[in-house]
Here is the input.
Amino acid sequence: MNRPPVKFGVISYGHFFKTNFIVAFRQCPEVDIIGVYNRGEERRLQAEQDGFFATSDLDELLAMPGLEAVAIGSSNNAHKEHALAAIRAGKHVFCEKPLALSLSDAEEMADAAEKSGLITHVNHPAPYSEQFQIIKKILADNLGRPFHCWLRYSRAFGLWNQGARHTAVAHPKESGGWTFHHHCHGLDAVCVLLGTNDVERVFHMELKSCPEAPSEEIINSFIQFRNGTTAILSDTTSIGSFLDLGIQAEKGDLRVLDGQATLVTTGPFDPSGRPGNLSSRITSMPVPEQEKEIPVVAKAFADAVRGGKNDLLSFRFICNQYRILDAMKKSAAIGDVVRL
Here is the structure.
């Protein structure tokens, strides 16, 4: 049975949200964008030129006839205000990451969402990517229980000392700094991949390329989960572009780098090697790069709104992971391990 598309309002017409989300939403027949809110006149006029009804009054957008949901792409420090306003108006909420800039704000948003019964989702797209699904299947089919995971991510933007001026680094009061703005992606991906976000302790280090940088640019986190699994997460704005993922598990190892997965599983003892040395079986396979997740997530969100399967990353689910981010920031501040 064909269902009518979910009528969306967009909160913020900034460059990133416009060029990524709105383009992707328009590719999704399950979504119909009927209005745009933007406080600034220039972007509001741009939305009108692009064919949307646009307003600088958020209440006017939320009161539009037929409006069912909003997609929030405003600055990170405005997510709480806009999400709570939408929930009060009875609208489902699709929110760009990070959900909020503090654990207390995230919990307030999760509480409001749960009381309302509305559908919520925080946009961490990695779990919905084809690449991520392939990695999960390889892990489940071949490796068994994971012992250790590492994820190294480089944003390919550049460092402050090199002259780069990433907005999240330049304006940490609005963005939350690089830990909240971008490191949350890697944390979410690893938690979903390992099947747990129940963390026992973290040690987190933040580095600037020069004293003048307003925010951290190079991040390293060491995590121990309560089930004993450990993880190391690294994230940077550095000019290089790569995603390096590795898993050590009970039946072998997996590494994913530059679109290539290498699976190493154990064979029989190697009589030509050192005593007790196992032989190995190596299998290489291509995996697609992360891309085109947003239309998939938009469809999943629309299906959930229409009463279908709901496997979204709800405010409450993500709120649990913000306890980890909060502990990371505390660890960096005191230079020591923080237990959750």
About this structure: The mean pLDDT is 91. The radius of gyration is 21 Å.
